[in-house]
Structures are given as C-alpha cells and as structure tokens.
Amino acid sequence: MSLGYAEKLSYREDVGTVGMPEKFDSPKLLQGKIEELAVMVQKSKHLVVFTGAGISTSSGIPDFRGPKGVWTLQRAGKGVPDASLPFHRAAPTLTHMALVELERAGLLKFVISQNVDSLHLRSGFPREKLAELHGNSFKEVCPCCKTEYLRDFEIETIGLKDTPRRCTDKNCGARLKDTVLDWEDALPPEEMNSAEEQCRAADLVLCLGTSLQITPACNMPLLSIKNGGKVAIVNLQATPKDKKASLVIHGLVDKVIAGVMCILSLRIPPYIRTDFIQLLLRHTVKSKCVRWTMRVTSVHGMRAPLSFLRSIEVSFPDRSDMKPVVLMEQPFSLQRETSMTSIFSMLLTLNFSDGCGCSSSSIECHVNFQKQKESFVRDRILVLQEMKCTAEHQSRAGQQSILERESLPRAETSIHAFVTNIIRYEAEDPKGSWMNSGSSTSSNLAKRLVEGASGYSASTKKLKC
Q: Which residues form the active site (predicted)?
C-alpha cells in the first residue's frame, strides 16, 4: 500500500489485529495445496479474485498488518516504514501479471481489490472487470460526468476531496475529486454493488494476500458460499474466515500463483511500462530574430509532476555556436534567441529517475521557424503495442515514439511515449517443473486446459490516462 496513503489517513486507535506471526506450509504440503488450487481454478466457471496488500509486498510496498507492516510498526512506536523505491514507480508483481493472463484466458471473471496502489490498472487489467473498494491513489474522478483520470503521480489528497485539476470535457469542466477513502467514508456504491454481485455469482472466490479484517469488504467473499460456491485463501497469517474456506494456503502469494500458472501451462506476461511527456515549442518574431521557448511538461497538465524524469540535457549537434544546457528541475524550460533563417537540430536526452529500467532516452527535433510542420494523431493503442513488442523482443527499455503533433503558426505541441521499464516473470516451481514432476494431477490438468479467449477487451468505463 501507499505509505503516503497511510500517513494521510485520519488517526484511528482500533485498526484490527496487527503483527500476527507468519505461517508457512511445509514444501510438500504447499505443493499439494498448489495442485489442489490449480484444479479448483481450472474447474471454476466463474472465478473471482479478492486481493489485499499482501500481493504488492514483493513490489517493495509494505503491507499494513504483517510483522513489518505500517500499522504494526506504528503501534510499536516505530513510525511508517520506508518503501524500497518511489511509490509511483512500483511495478505490478508476478501475481498482478498472472491475473491479467488468467483474465485473457477466460478463467478469471472479476477482481475485487482493497488496495489503493493502482497496480491492477498499471498491469493492464481491464477496468470494467475490476472493483477498487477503497479507491486508487493515482486516480481522480469527475463528480458530474463520472469520467475517471488515471495519473502517473500520486493524488495529493484522500477522503474524496477536491483536487487542483478539472475535468477536460469541454461540456463539463467540473473540479475533480480524489477516489481514496478515509476511515469514515462509505464504500463507493458502484464498486461495492459490482463486487457483491460478482461474489454471489462466483463458484470460487480466491482471496490473495488479505487478512480479511476490514468490514464490510471482508464479508464479501462469503457471499459465494451462500450460493454453493467455495472460498480459497492464500495468506501468510491466519484470517477470521479460514474456518469457512475450502482451502487455506500459508505461503508467499507469488510462489503459489507461479505454481498454479505453471500447472495450467499459462505464460505470465512481462510488465512493460510506458511514460509520456508533452513537448512545447513556441516562438515570437522580433525583427530578423526569433525568440523561442522549449518546454517539457506532463501530459496531465502544466503543473503536474514529471516524477520519472531526473533531468534533461539539451544540445544542438549541428550548431557549435549554440551552447548545450542541462535542465535539472521542473519546469523543464529553455529560452533562446536565434536568427529567423536558422535551421537546426535540437537533441533532448531525458535522464530517468530511480526505479526506471533504463537510464535515459532521446528525442531529436528539427527546428525551422519558416516552415510549419504537419499536424497528425497516430493510433495510440497500435503505437504503444508496437513499442511494447519491440521492448519485449529486445529485452530492454528505452524505446520512444511520437504519438501526436499539433502545429500552429507560432507554436508546436507534441506528445511522446517512452518505454521506461520491462520486467519478466517466471511461472516455475523452485523445485523444478510442475509439468515434468510426474504428478498425475499435473498430467490431467494439462489435458483439461480451458480454451479461453485470448483477446483483450477495452474498458467501457470512461477512464483517461
């Protein structure tokens, strides 16, 4: 979970049981339970997954109630623990990406999350198949037209308060609100209703990395039992719902899910992150000279942070008379004055911040103030997909592409995308291949795999990135 989120919450004495000891099933018992879970998933006709903070800890985000959890340490007077990397750079875990593949394969119908870290959406999981019960630290919503805005920076407030930004719909323009609940805020009706409906329809609710203590959310998985469904729990601590579960596994969530994916012969897709900038070039003519300004900003607004950038080096490869400069902080802006007839190349080297999978990437701009460039808008989905395919094939980040350009007589604005991270995951059991283990269960499962749809459906919700 977000450490910023934990610090912004109103004080509350009773946060439930914290600091419970972790329990680990023996290797042999764990292997048997993973095979049993794989059978349950494969046989399920309506699988719903219910997630908590435990699925994000391997990304470097502390949980709340574990031995080193946020509330455990706070109760001991030790303060909020440090995250291993900036919150906005946290990457989806093996479990997050496995859920993406399970949905694509037609096995997983819906995910209900208590997390506010945005890792489900960051993983590429379809928005219309996700209920975020406690909100999202990176999402704003318009209270009037209901458009959702997914950001690459953490929203400043929690508690459903107004934020500094407004809806970009020209017919609306209302002030946006954050989506993260404080202690006394009620669960959002739309998310709660969808979650309850899915739990009632589920023949299997798989609870991953949650202590199942926070009401009313913790009671949702049990709705499936009333209609003949089953509940399975994977968590390192005991939960109040263990006695009602058909299967309880005490083990690392990533290890359990990796084993299930291997048994089901499903590949865990890599996580490939893209980040964006807006490049503005404006100029005014003064006699025979041109005074111009170059500015790099966030696509989320002029004042929004560009957290993935450390600095920008600006150079002019074909002009020794134009001095290079290093822009160290926002606003990343450069002003110069050149001859009206000057034609030159401007090279921008973007140095990325900690948490990125490569150190830098570059953009080369050809500047001619006497000739206006063409405006265009490329197919965003297609371009990003091509970039991700290239990154996966090359096994590295750093690819960049221009998505659109708007040219006016005195100004030019362009949007650029960069691949800033690629992370691969392996669906393997640490003791060897599940499919070659000689297990009759594994052999039978291989023959009964679901022939699900591998397509990726677009969200029907109004979600803007």
A: 134
For the domain that residue 91 is a member of, what is the CATH number? Answer: 3.40.50.1220
| Number of residues in the chain | 465
Which residue of the set 134, 250, 300, 416 is catalytic? 134
β 230-234/162-166 pair status: unpaired
Amino acid at 429: D
Torsion angle, CA of 73/76/80/85, rounded to 10 degrees? Answer: -40
> Number of folded domains in the chain?
2
Known catalytic residue at 120: no
- State the Cα–Cα distance between residues 198 and 221, nearest whole angstrom: 9
pTM of the model: 0.87
How many angstroms separate the CA atoms of 465 and 221, rounded?
31
373 and 297 within one domain: yes
- Distance, in Å, from the CA atom of 276 to the CA atom of 307, rounded to the nearest integer, reads 11
Q: Is 145 flagged in the annotation as binding? A: yes
Q: Which two tokens stand for residue 79?
A: 């303060």
Q: Quick one: 293 and 349 in the same domain?
A: yes
Cis ω on the peptide bond leading into residue 430 (within 30° of 0)? Answer: no
With CA atoms as reference, report the closest residue to 261 among 438, 86, 99, 150: 99
pLDDT digits (tens, 9 = 90+) for 129-146: 999 999 999 999 999 999
Query: Known binder of ligand: residue 289?
Result: no
142 is in an annotated binding site: yes
Backbone angles phi, psi at 2, to 5 degrees: -70, 130
Can you state the percent helix, strand and coil of the chain, rounding each to 5?
25, 30, 45
Residue 172 marked in a binding site: yes
Which CATH number characterizes residue 401's domain?
Answer: 2.60.40.1970
Residues 194 and 227 grouped into a single domain: yes
Q: Whole domain around residue 276: which residue ranges?
A: 272-422
